[in-house]
Amino acid sequence: MTFTAPVLNYAQLAPMLIVLGGALIGVLIEAFGPRASRHASQLFITVASLVAAFAALVRVRNQSSVDAAMGSVGFDGAGVLLQGTILIIALLSVFLIADQENFTALAAAVPGSSEERESLQLDLRVTEVYPLTLFAVAGMLLFPVSTDLITLFVALEMLSLPLYLMAGLSRRRRLMSQESALKYFLLGAFSSAFLLFGVAYLYGYSNSVTFAGIQASITGGSGNDVFLLLGIAFISVGLLFKVGAVPFHAWSPDVYQGAPTAITGFMAAATKVAAFGAILRIFYVAFANAEWQWKPALVLIAIVTMVFGSVVAITQRDVKRMLAYSSIAHAGFLLAGVIALSKSGLDASIFYLFAYGIATVGAFGVVTLVRDSAGEVTDLNRWSGLGKRSPLVASVFAFFLLAFAGIPLTSGFIGKFSIFSAAYETGSTAILIAGVLSSAIAAFFYIRVIVLMFFKDPVEDGTSVVIPSALTTTTIAVTSLITLILGIFPAPLINFIESSAFFIR
Amino acid sequence: MNPYNYLYVSALLFTIGAVGVVVRRNAIVVFMCVELMLNAANLTLVTFSRINGTLDGQVVAFFTMVVAACEVVVGLAIIVTIYRSRRSASVDDASLLKR
């Protein structure tokens, strides 16, 4: 028996390897670095590896091959765009995470114990969040480019496991934060077991674990169709859970509310890009020829997701929960791009993911600024009159809400328009109608928040807007600027996506 | 022996695990049920590997074991933290976020 050494294309794998290397250096700093300089050095390593990974990605942007890692990683235009989006979102989120006001000083200390008080007095900082972020980012980079089922499963776990821990790091309301970590973990593990069961059945159907092999089996039509159906169904459950589509959304409002806000922003934006990247690739590449087996179910899920997210968001009294339900509705809109199963659907989805991810990070960045003496204020009633107290912050938040609602002159309008026109071109009229109707419902609750901020009197209960740190200011400024520019002048990005987005098969 | 019988066994194990996750209240037991589901998937993979006559399924099963081990580390860390704060590992007690 001969053993052939694997051939790896290191240039194409470099973005992931750099991020992983940075994470490992972060672990070493955590173990051996002096405590006083740990925060600064961790921040430096994190930012440096994200920037270096982006540079490495730009260097190989025009290459494409299925052999980046022996057929397990497909490197192509869509992969580059998605990886670039994830890296930009991660960098902006790290700037929010660097504001340590919202993180516990010592995650292992029991809430209310003397140990916790001591850690607060010593002014300790939670620096392990940086390597955890980098590990999660590495998993997210791998998720949308994986072209076999093993890599898909490993990448899913790689991005999820650090996020479970990061959800439990909040400084205030720690019981709530730990509870959100528990819920996220148990439901996440549950859904990844479903994904793995689907992997097993797809392997049974096609006798191959690569997407290309599955596609060949579907085209050939030789396997047992029961296995194919079970495989597609179980894998879809695992993937739809990650994007929070109804009926697999139960975790998302709780986790969004309980996790530290900076982490919520990162998770909401970057996980969605990574998971939709993987969904797009597996449905466009592996399952494209089995369209009639999955399309009806996915159309139903998309419609229910849009309508449910928009309707339930109306009743929310907490700004983070409201954003969670709004993200569920957006997952439904994005599923319209998956269902379109066309080049224009792919382009629109990638544009939408970029626009939505950037706006989400910015919106959660603004949420971190509204505080009272006990930490962040997320109760919507206490946000009333914010526009009179600090017009700038309230206007920026209102702008992000308008972008989520899809009002013209924001990136959200272009995103929604392109994704719905892609759905229309491919004849999914039901999706189009449901999408437009639920957008109208969604606009209602976004505008209600704006009315609350600008046309109600402020309540005198100590709620105030803190002066943001330089890094937080950078994030909010950059995200709002991108949202505005993409709304007014989207052509360069759209053309770039159109010319380079494709899936290698 | 007909290898398809193993598929029925693993589907049964998977169902027991899934039902356990839904009905049991102790976080540790819920987690054990998830592990049962992962092992059911492993049995399916190995069975298909035998039916199809290729090794890929066994390779996936090895990856699953490693990933399951990582999941245990992270999961038990979270459950132990919760237990230390609340003196209870019941998922019903953790209900601050319910509205």
What are the SSEs and their pairings?
The complex is a heterodimer of chains A (505) and B (99).
Chain A: H1 10-32, H2 35-59, H3 77-97, H4 114-121, H5 129-142, H6 149-166, H7 174-206, H8 211-220, H9 225-243, H10 251-258, H11 261-286, H12 291-314, H13 319-340, H14 343-367, E1 370-372, E2 375-376, H15 386-389, H16 391-405, H17 411-425, H18 429-455, E3 464-465, H19 470-488, H20 491-500
Antiparallel strand pairs in A: 1-2, 1-3
Helix pairs in contact in A: 1-2, 1-5, 2-3, 2-5, 3-5, 3-11, 3-14, 3-19, 5-6, 5-11, 6-7, 6-11, 7-8, 7-9, 7-10, 9-11, 10-11, 10-13, 11-13, 11-14, 12-13, 12-18, 13-14, 13-17, 13-18, 14-16, 14-17, 14-19, 14-20, 16-18, 17-18, 17-19
Chain B: H1 4-23, H2 27-52, H3 56-86
Q: What does this entry look like structurally?
A:
- The complex is a heterodimer of chains A (505) and B (99).
- Chain A is mostly helical and 505 residues long.
- Chain A has one domain.
- In chain A, α6 runs antiparallel to α11, α9 packs antiparallel against α11 and α12 runs parallel beside α18.
- The radius of gyration of chain A is 22 Å and the shape is globular.
- The two termini of chain A are 30 Å apart.
- With 99 residues, chain B is an all-alpha fold.
- Chain B is built from three helices and no strands.
- In chain B, α2 runs antiparallel to α3.
- Chain B is elongated.
- Chain B starts with a helix and ends in a 13-residue tail after the last helix.
